[in-house]
Fold:
Amino acid sequence: MLNRRILRIKAFKAIYSYAENPDMSLKDTESLLEQSCEATRDLYLYMLAVIGPLTREAKNRIEAAGRKFTKSDEELHPNLKFTNNRISTILESDPDFAKLLHKKNFSWDQNDVILRHLYETIRERKYFQDYLNSGKDSLAEDAALWRKIFENEFEDNEELVPILEDMSILWNDDLAYSLICCCNTIDSLGKGNSWELPPLYRSDMDKSGTKESDKLFVSKLVRAAYAGFDKYSDLIAGNTPKWDMNRICVTDRALIICGLAEGDTFPNISEKVTINEYVEISKYYSTPESRGFVNGLLDKLINKH
Structure:
């Protein structure tokens, strides 16, 4: 599930926490890393679990309309295609999925307001109307609809942000990637496959066992960055003589330290790949000037000290 880019971000965040809290032990830092990795899969589960409740919201609307004394023609002859979608049925009837949601205490029941608003938004979308009126009815079409919903309705949803923040501080910044994983699952279900909990690390999906362990990669990276933190900090200071170390933002320092640790620990990974990865991460987590600063220092120092 988690690819190398995401794992580098997790490692950077763990080392950033250590930089901000020097009393953190290696065990604390590794524990934070592990929790952060698992949290992304938890968010995937929680978002995938919206499918059943959103389908029930549509059913409730139709049933409520059916109880009205005076009904419109649409209410007399409702289109039940979405309420009968197979993706919802597959997930709702999967005992492993239900057991895992119960274990994690994940439920959308207390978020009925956002469910109502989501359905009101979705039902007005052209892609939803095209789905209802296509004249077709298949598992693949149901899956294609849910993929559009996950691609369009959640990432910039202002109502969803505070809900996720209240549930887990570790879910911050993970929504986009979790939604991609949800789409991958929906595609798989649309091909007739059963639901399976994705392995936490992308390398664990390699049945041949020939791919290098991603879990080992991120664990070694964090240990190396933690152990070499002071050494790498001194190296940064020695190569930025015009800068007081306190003027170098903690984010940039953590990124550069992770890059140096990766260069030392994984000589099989090209310097260019390592540098590019941390420069890309800096675009999202640091200042506008950080890209050039991180790129310049890593290019100068990585594997050359």
